[in-house]
């Protein structure tokens, strides 16, 4: 699914109107009726007081349409026009007239107005600003928003939580409506997925408003959602006449005294993701524990006892994942940089491999083109430097991926993949996955997919999707707190089964939260 920009939303609007030969108010009617239908299906005529706050643009127009339908269905409705500008949109005015035709006269709020009383059992429809917000709300509008937030009433925001920009972080987070539910039109917005802005709309749903399918197909989105629908386009189920050689040989290099478990998790995850053969390469201290716990994995050791002092030529393995639990001591740094210099094909670099590169920025050119880097935010900061806010972070990640011709997988609540000037936002996963070893599992999974011949970008996308899905399936049994990396590995099988079979009941990527 595409994440559109502001210009693309407006263009989708125009294209829909011209393709259907309808006026703007007809599309507004259709969009806002979907919002009304959603609410009516849940309220079922309950006698709760509904307070509709409308701006004076098209988002406000949507609010007026919802208010009219609520009145027509017998709800108790108070309508407020938040009069922040003299420039009313045409479709707002059309719907204001229609509302007045129902003998409903809204109350106008401006700078001097007292704040309306809202009981905690009420429902607020927030239609003050939509995607048109382009500057901070006036102080009195910010006060009104804070008042709505503190009312305790249930808040349904239309299209955007008012006060939230589409493309930047709000100057004053207290002046953004905190939506209990956000019903957004046509496509999700990038802000829903970023930590600083996603908090205003943790529960959202996309409403299809019959937008022009031709435009939606052809629009080139800078960001895309990674969901089941997307990864199924390149997932390759196994074929009958294949053998283990068909599925490649993955080499996982890492580990140090006390951190052999990181390699064990990655190697196990590579196997569970379908690699035909897996070799783990660890310092001597890791030999016995790995051999004892992973009978399917071949173990190779390097001369150092507690850390790598040199790293082997890759040999028969086709694909390498390196860095988990490896340490960053001087000998490891030297061994790793020398090893990287010799690598010609894409590798997966994780954890300490990234930390070593951050210590040696002049050696970043040694990363083979098409390699996959999987930093968590701390590792990313060491690689690209600090960022001002979440949008700056995206920009820096895109620039880094472009400059080093690599695929950057930035781990987080919504893991994001950056490659070739584009961003991909993962939709699977949950807070239980913020647990020791979860990243090692992801690295192992992606390495296992690379070994099977997936293109690096596909391996990264399929890996983050399956990893998150395995985490969701695991957490459905354990809850968030008890979810462990081992449990995530155990759930990879079910994530694959769902990919080739029917979707899980909770797999809808037109909703979040
Ligand atoms: N296809 C769709 O998605 C549909 C969307 N609809 C709805 O339309 C809005 C977008 O409507 P728009 O009128 O463009 O914008 P807003 O309603 O969000 O804002 C109105 C104007 O307010 C001005 N503005 C911006 N920031 C501020 C501020 N801080 N203080 C005061 N005024 C502000 C700005 O105009 P300027 O000329 O003053 O810059 C805005 O244009 C979308 O979100 C949907 O809800 C349609 O209903 C149908 C289909
Ligand atoms: K809104």
From TrEMBL:
<feature type="binding site">
    <location>
        <position position="439"/>
    </location>
    <ligand>
        <name>AMP</name>
    </ligand>
</feature>
<keyword id="KW-0413">Isomerase</keyword>
<dbReference type="Pfam" id="PF01256">
    <property type="entry name" value="Carb_kinase"/>
</dbReference>
<feature type="binding site">
    <location>
        <position position="159"/>
    </location>
    <ligand>
        <name>(6S)-NADPHX</name>
    </ligand>
</feature>
<keyword id="KW-0520">NAD</keyword>
<keyword id="KW-0521">NADP</keyword>
<comment type="similarity">
    <text>In the N-terminal section; belongs to the NnrE/AIBP family.</text>
</comment>
<dbReference type="InterPro" id="IPR017953">
    <property type="entry name" value="Carbohydrate_kinase_pred_CS"/>
</dbReference>
<keyword id="KW-0630">Potassium</keyword>
<keyword id="KW-0511">Multifunctional enzyme</keyword>
<feature type="domain" description="YjeF C-terminal">
    <location>
        <begin position="227"/>
        <end position="499"/>
    </location>
</feature>
<feature type="binding site">
    <location>
        <position position="126"/>
    </location>
    <ligand>
        <name>K(+)</name>
    </ligand>
</feature>
<comment type="function">
    <text>Catalyzes the epimerization of the S- and R-forms of NAD(P)HX, a damaged form of NAD(P)H that is a result of enzymatic or heat-dependent hydration. This is a prerequisite for the S-specific NAD(P)H-hydrate dehydratase to allow the repair of both epimers of NAD(P)HX.</text>
</comment>
<feature type="binding site">
    <location>
        <begin position="58"/>
        <end position="62"/>
    </location>
    <ligand>
        <name>(6S)-NADPHX</name>
    </ligand>
</feature>
<protein>
    <recommendedName>
        <fullName>Bifunctional NAD(P)H-hydrate repair enzyme</fullName>
        <ecNumber>4.2.1.136</ecNumber>
        <ecNumber>5.1.99.6</ecNumber>
    </recommendedName>
</protein>
<keyword id="KW-0479">Metal-binding</keyword>
<feature type="binding site">
    <location>
        <position position="325"/>
    </location>
    <ligand>
        <name>(6S)-NADPHX</name>
    </ligand>
</feature>
<dbReference type="Pfam" id="PF03853">
    <property type="entry name" value="YjeF_N"/>
</dbReference>
<keyword id="KW-0456">Lyase</keyword>
<feature type="binding site">
    <location>
        <position position="440"/>
    </location>
    <ligand>
        <name>(6S)-NADPHX</name>
    </ligand>
</feature>
<feature type="binding site">
    <location>
        <position position="262"/>
    </location>
    <ligand>
        <name>(6S)-NADPHX</name>
    </ligand>
</feature>
<comment type="function">
    <text>Catalyzes the dehydration of the S-form of NAD(P)HX at the expense of ADP, which is converted to AMP. Together with NAD(P)HX epimerase, which catalyzes the epimerization of the S- and R-forms, the enzyme allows the repair of both epimers of NAD(P)HX, a damaged form of NAD(P)H that is a result of enzymatic or heat-dependent hydration.</text>
</comment>
<dbReference type="InterPro" id="IPR004443">
    <property type="entry name" value="YjeF_N_dom"/>
</dbReference>
<feature type="binding site">
    <location>
        <position position="376"/>
    </location>
    <ligand>
        <name>(6S)-NADPHX</name>
    </ligand>
</feature>
<comment type="similarity">
    <text>Belongs to the NnrE/AIBP family.</text>
</comment>
<feature type="binding site">
    <location>
        <position position="162"/>
    </location>
    <ligand>
        <name>K(+)</name>
    </ligand>
</feature>
<dbReference type="InterPro" id="IPR000631">
    <property type="entry name" value="CARKD"/>
</dbReference>
<feature type="domain" description="YjeF N-terminal">
    <location>
        <begin position="9"/>
        <end position="217"/>
    </location>
</feature>
<keyword id="KW-0067">ATP-binding</keyword>
<dbReference type="InterPro" id="IPR029056">
    <property type="entry name" value="Ribokinase-like"/>
</dbReference>
<keyword id="KW-0547">Nucleotide-binding</keyword>
<dbReference type="InterPro" id="IPR030677">
    <property type="entry name" value="Nnr"/>
</dbReference>
<feature type="binding site">
    <location>
        <begin position="130"/>
        <end position="136"/>
    </location>
    <ligand>
        <name>(6S)-NADPHX</name>
    </ligand>
</feature>
<feature type="binding site">
    <location>
        <position position="59"/>
    </location>
    <ligand>
        <name>K(+)</name>
    </ligand>
</feature>
<feature type="binding site">
    <location>
        <begin position="411"/>
        <end position="415"/>
    </location>
    <ligand>
        <name>AMP</name>
    </ligand>
</feature>
<comment type="subunit">
    <text>Homotetramer.</text>
</comment>
<dbReference type="InterPro" id="IPR036652">
    <property type="entry name" value="YjeF_N_dom_sf"/>
</dbReference>
